[in-house]
Design goal:
mainly alpha, 11 helices
Length: 284
């Protein structure tokens, strides 16, 4: 029933509508995890994973039809730039949905500070941003780190963030290669991690959420765009393997386009990491 809220064709014509769908799916997942499974002695400790799982379950039907629709376009044309331009509307729709996830999860983090739904995400945030004081970060995750921290350890943080983003891109490629819509799991997980970071920056205040959202989307929009490009590349590779002879020229043309998209995704991640380390702390 939920997949009938918005069709892929309508989402392509009106990408911004996916923001509403993203908020609804994320809020529904948050409500189920906290108000149905939150009191369970066993499942409560895994609420961070359950939050992602339910979000993926609600989103999967729509993503599946989107990937299927986009893959049909890839069979008609080759050329990475042409592909990117052909997919630009659905990229916009997916990014709007991701922003909807962020807004809903950030509000959940701030409005329900006692929730355990972001415990794993907080640990991930601390392992990336403050690996040298991981335990202290987890304990004091509500304290905004000083701006000097990012500048002093700039090169080290740049390497850590870029390598982590490459790691996520690899998982996105693998998931989309095995099952095109599978990449949504990686994207939903990242939405919860970024939402936790926005909650930390906002100091548990709803008023500060727009500033926190602006802070993390300054570089996050670039990184998420890279993951979406990677997901499309993985889907294209899977289509090339399934529908074309390995010895055919068409197969190698599609594979070349896919590798070009992967290179574009890596370059976007490099830019995103640079912005996150050197530009974002300066702006905020």
């Amino acid at each position: 029933m939920l997949e009938m809220l918005l069709s892929p064709k309508k989402a392509e014509r009106h990408p911004w509508m996916m923001f509403i769908v993203g908020v609804f799916y994320a809020a529904l997942a948050f409500g189920l995890v906290n108000f149905i499974f939150g009191d369970d002695l066993v499942l409560a400790s895994y609420s961070g994973i359950l939050l992602v799982t339910f979000t993926v379950m609600f989103t999967m039907p729509f993503i599946y039809y989107v990937i299927k629709r986009e893959e049909e376009k890839d069979l008609k044309d080759t050329g990475s730039l042409k592909m990117l331009l052909g997919h630009h509307r659905i990229f916009q729709a997916l990014i709007w949905m991701f922003i909807g996830f962020l807004v809903a999860f950030s509000l959940g983090y701030v409005l329900f500070p006692q929730t355990q739904s972001f415990k794993a995400q907080i640990e991930t945030f601390c392992s990336i941003n403050r690996p040298g004081s991981f335990d202290q970060c987890v304990t004091q995750y509500g304290v905004r780190p000083p701006k000097q921290t990012a500048a002093v350890a700039g090169k080290e943080r740049l390497f850590i963030i870029f390598s982590n983003n490459i790691y996520v891109l690899i998982f996105t490629l693998v998931f989309s290669l095995i099952f095109g819509a599978g990449a949504v799991f990686v994207l939903a997980w990242n939405a919860t991690v970024i939402a936790a970071a926005i909650g930390i920056f906002s100091r548990e205040s709803v008023i500060n959420i727009p500033i926190g959202l602006a802070r993390y989307m300054t570089h996050g929009i670039i990184e998420i765009g890279a993951y979406f490009v990677g997901a499309v590349a993985g889907g294209i590779i899977s289509i090339a393997i399934i529908k074309h002879e390995i010895n055919s020229q068409r197969f190698w043309n599609i594979m070349q386009d896919s590798f070009n998209l992967i290179i574009i995704a890596i370059l976007l991640l490099a830019v995103g990491a640079f912005v996150e380390v050197f530009i974002t702390p300066w702006l905020f």
